[in-house]
Design brief:
- This protein is mainly α.
- It has one domain: Topoisomerase I, Chain A, domain 3 (Alpha-Beta Complex).
- The protein is 47% helix and 9% strand.
- A three-stranded antiparallel sheet has the order 1-2-3.
- Helix 1 packs across helix 5 and helix 2 crosses helix 4.
- The termini are far apart.
Length: 146
């Protein structure tokens, strides 16, 4: 995740940060996230492993730190942990819903957009930043190519 996105994700709650990490960094679909359980994760000192359907996804570096903190926080006050315990909990205390994930990703997008707008006057935005945050690249249509 590039620096701009990481700065914005730090303004979110821990569960929201972990969710954004899974979507943007590890390329896990929203439906797969909804069905992730605590038993689908193994965290070591240097890597986190997620069993997602038929594949195993790994996280390291900054992603590992965010995800480890979230998982530790998630299990801290649990009296009992069972295999089908959801990783992400919604506002109703049960498994997170598609609508709740949509709300979190929209909140994150708004943070990125407002941060980007603030940066435009103080910093030069690279092409890589524009591509990562899906900002349209403006092309001078008066220039023709042969």
């Amino acid at each position: 995740m590039n620096l701009l996105l990481r700065q914005c994700s730090q303004k979110l709650k821990l569960q929201e940060q972990a969710l954004i990490e899974l979507i943007y960094t590890l390329d896990i679909s929203v439906m797969q996230i909804i069905h992730l359980n605590l038993s689908d994760i193994i965290i070591t000192e240097s890597l986190a492993f997620f069993r997602v359907g038929e594949r195993v996804v790994t996280a390291d570096g900054d992603s590992l730190a965010v995800l480890s903190n979230f998982v530790l926080d998630r299990i801290r006050n649990q009296v009992e942990i069972y295999d089908s315990m959801p990783l992400f909990i919604g506002t109703n205390g049960k498994r997170i819903t598609l609508k709740e994930i949509w709300t979190i990703t929209n909140k994150f997008s708004d943070l990125v957009a407002s941060t980007f707008c603030a940066m435009r006057t103080t910093e030069t935005i690279t092409w890589e930043d524009r591509i990562h945050i899906n900002i349209p690249l403006f092309v001078d249509k008066s220039v023709t190519t042969m």
